[in-house]
Amino acid sequence: MAEEIINRVANSKLVTIDLEDYYPEGVRYVFDIKDWLFEGLVLREKAFRQHVKDYDWSQHKGQYVALTCSSEAIIPAWAFMLLSLELQPYTSKTIIGDLESLETSIYQDLINTLDVSVFKDKPVIVKGCSNKPVPTNASIMLANKLQPVASSIMYGEACSSVPLFKRK
Is 153 exposed, middle or buried (0-12, 13-18, 19+ CB in 10 A)? Predict the structure, then answer.
């Protein structure tokens, strides 16, 4: 007589959180101001302001934008502030940095508003692999938010998780 196979993972209190499930849709765009600089290196205020005035900011509606300068130029803070003020009515989020910094900032906002009370006294697995660009920092932020409420925190998959924290 064959033994019945019992799925102990399905019958446990174990809760899996997949950060990919929280990934907000929307275009990610790197806005490089290098081409708005004189010879790619010098910010001339009058010419820069003219580029700002002539640019169609509405094309970034609903996008997540990372402002950057890929040249060795030293950009004054006011220049990025000016760009962010122009983008503000259209974008979902604007930061200074690269795409990874942008994703980290997006996830920081999401995790800050996440209600973790549903994970109180439960063992939690933070799913490891994802098909979307979930930043590693998001796992750290989530683990720190879960630690005060979860009974344990693991990383990976239910069948092969790495234990990280267990409340004493």
Answer: buried
Measured in degrees and rounded to the nearest 5, phi and psi for residue 34 equal -50, -45
- Asked whether the predicted pLDDT for residue 6 surpasses 60, the reply is no
Query: How far, in Å, CA of 96 to CA of 101, rounded?
Result: 8
Six token digits for residue 119: 């994970």
Task: Name which of 22, 19, 27 is nearest 99 in CA terms.
Answer: 27
pLDDT tens digits, 16-49 = 999 999 999 999 999 999 999 999 899 999 999 9
Give the alpha-carbon dihedral of 41, 47, 51, 54, to 10 degrees.
Answer: -170
Beta bridge partners of 15: 124
CB-based contacts of 57-61 (< 8 A; 24+ apart in sequence):
57/86, 57/87, 57/89, 57/90, 58/90, 60/29, 60/31, 60/87, 60/90, 60/91, 61/90, 61/91
Whole-angstrom distance, CA of residue 168 vs CA of residue 162: 18
